[in-house]
Amino acid sequence: MKPTEKSAAIRRAFAIFAGTEMPCTRYITASLPAGDYLRSYCDARRIEEYCRACGNYGRIWGCPPFDTDPLERLAGYGHIRIIGAVVTLDAKERHRPADVSEAAAAAYAIVEDARRPMDARLLEAEKRHHGSRALFAGSCLLCGRGGCLRTEGKPCRYPDRARTSLEACGFDVARTAKELLGLPLRWSEGPVLPPYFTLVGGLFTKEKTEESEWTHA
Asked: Beta-strand (E) ranges in 64-188?
């Protein structure tokens, strides 16, 4: 889908939910030693092959390839708090798209709507936990679609707010969601949206954090 077509489709997707609230998001989390997560859930070579198939590969500063190994930034952390943002849809919401194109655009819109507050909460958690490192749930959204300066060979506009993702660092997000959060990733089936979307991010910290930071608003 071309950028202009995607933008138009996303506007249609938001129109699908016009007059109603976007589906609600709840958070579930898991905590484990950072070393255990690195050993059990990082498969950098295999995951980067998936990244290569994405249009953001090499075009967004938060996506690979990187000049340095992103895992080096995670060395020395004692724990990781895995954060799953779960957006649940009812039967009516799942069947609102009229076709596959609208379903894809609606999925993008729903995920983007959930991502922004999730990203903000992760950055707030970084401030609370000195020296911690947040990893977002997917590609950077700060400059909008096609707006990253990487394609022009220029530095990031927002280095204080931009973060890479778990998958960009080589972590298997599908296994993480299924085995640590108990929520297998689900996908649309034709024009029918899945019963839920799961966004998976993380916070690497020196000390173990409390689940209540995420389960209580």
From this structure: 79-88, 133-135
